[in-house]
């Protein structure tokens, strides 16, 4: 078999032995299947999140088990009502989209309407688009998104994002609670109440984050849930761990507020590292993201670097812009730059 020919690094083997010495997998879903997959019972629809039944609320919308912002168009659930889907979860998804938009654009993650464009300001023409190439249209001043290093053939992208951290977290938590097996739901009622704003529980909300370079290691979204073993290598580990991998990105975190984790209070613990197929040669380190705050973060700067093979000016797009914005173009044309980079 092909898998038998893969040579795993010792670091990857060690990471697997340590993690699976503490956890067993209780749920796993991919999204590359040819047919749609639905979780739950179509003939007995009860919303997992608000508890209301069909008749009290409607279940007409296709409820994505994993957000379609990350490329999921195959995995759905029968236990998410239209009210929760539209009024609450769409708000969380908007915050997650704001947080990841430039990264999703550059990594070509297909969302609701294809690969998203990135715009630095609402009414400014500074933007990044990707189709068969990366297209950057910008002013060459302090508002520029892209900065070229021609010598090393690297482009440095700088963006700004505005978001509410706890709502980004709740978007990820909603996906975890959607794929949670029915038998485990009694253990996560506090997390469910927190996500639905039925309880205001204070806790530091950390998410482990990895970003991989090169060709997408996860062409379609993959998710896994793990449960702590009774007999394990390390005593002080959380009850549940959730992993979400798509494109170049991996998010992982423990399901918060589980009563079975009360013994961990005031104990020193570290986030367990969940190895993935992308770590077979050299496991990536975890970056801890703190999404605890409910205060809006405004215009937070962040960056990403990408290599390119070549570039050229796109005069057609420049002319198109001039025709659409003739007055503004008179003062901007000579200082604006449009270029394309082949990946």
List the helices and strands and how they pair.
Blueprint: H1 2-5, H2 10-20, E1 23-30, E2 37-39, E3 63-64, E4 75-77, H3 82-106, E5 118-119, E6 127-130, E7 134-139, E8 146-149, E9 154-163, H4 165-179, H5 189-195, E10 206-211, E11 218-228, E12 240-247, E13 249-254, E14 287-290, E15 297-307, E16 310-313, H6 315-324, H7 326-332, E17 336-342
Parallel strand pairs: 2-4
Antiparallel strand pairs: 1-11, 3-4, 5-6, 6-7, 7-17, 8-9, 9-15, 10-13, 10-14, 11-12, 12-13, 16-17
Helix pairs in contact: 3-4, 6-7
Q: Which key phrases capture this entry?
A:
343 residues; alpha+beta; 2 domains; six-stranded antiparallel sheet; 7 helices; 17 strands; 23% helix; globular
Helix content: 10-25%
Give the helices and strands as they follow along the chain. Answer: HHEEEEHEEEEEHHEEEEEEEHHE
Radius of gyration: 22 Å
User: How many separate helices?
Assistant: 7
Largest beta sheet: strand ordering: 1-11-12-13-10-14
- Contiguous uncertain segments of 5+ residues: 336-343
What is the structural class? Answer: alpha+beta
Mean pLDDT: 86
Q: Please tell me what the overall shape is.
A: globular
**Largest β sheet strand count, sense and barrel closure:** 6 strands, antiparallel
| Total domains | 2
What is the CA–CA distance across the termini? 32 Å
What amount of the residues lies in strands?
Answer: 25-35%
Total strands: the figure is 17
């Amino acid at each position: 078999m092909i898998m038998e020919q893969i040579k795993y690094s010792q670091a990857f083997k060690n990471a697997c032995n340590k993690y699976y010495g503490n956890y067993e997998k209780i749920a796993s879903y991919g999204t590359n299947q040819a047919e749609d997959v639905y979780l739950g019972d179509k003939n007995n629809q009860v919303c997992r999140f608000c508890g209301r039944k069909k008749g009290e609320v409607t279940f007409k919308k296709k409820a994505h088990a994993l957000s379609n912002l990350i490329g999921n168009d195959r995995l759905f659930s029968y236990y998410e009502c239209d009210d929760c889907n539209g009024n609450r979860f769409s708000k969380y998804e908007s915050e997650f989209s704001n947080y990841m938009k430039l990264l999703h654009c550059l990594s070509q993650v297909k969302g609701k309407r294809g690969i998203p464009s990135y715009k630095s300001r609402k009414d400014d023409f500074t933007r990044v688009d990707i189709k068969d190439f990366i297209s950057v249209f910008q002013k060459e001043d302090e508002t520029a998104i892209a900065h070229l290093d021609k010598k090393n053939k690297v482009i440095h992208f700088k963006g700004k994002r505005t978001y509410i951290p706890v709502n980004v977290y709740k978007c990820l938590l909603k996906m975890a609670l959607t794929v949670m097996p029915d038998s485990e739901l009694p253990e996560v009622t506090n997390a469910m109440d927190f996500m639905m704003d039925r309880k205001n529980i204070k806790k530091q909300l950390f998410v482990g984050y990895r970003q991989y370079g090169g060709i997408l290691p996860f062409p379609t979204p993959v998710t896994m849930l793990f449960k702590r073993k009774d007999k394990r290598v390390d005593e002080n580990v959380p009850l549940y761990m959730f992993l979400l991998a798509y494109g170049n990105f991996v998010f992982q975190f423990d399901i918060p507020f589980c009563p079975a984790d009360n013994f961990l209070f005031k104990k020193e613990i570290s986030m367990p590292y969940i190895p993935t197929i992308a770590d077979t040669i050299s496991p990536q380190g975890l970056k801890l993201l703190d999404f605890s705050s409910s205060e809006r973060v405004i215009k937070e700067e962040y960056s990403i670097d990408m290599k390119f093979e070549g570039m050229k000016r796109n005069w057609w797009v420049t002319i198109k812009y001039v025709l659409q914005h003739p007055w503004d173009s008179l003062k901007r044309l000579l200082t604006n730059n449009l270029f394309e980079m082949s990946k």
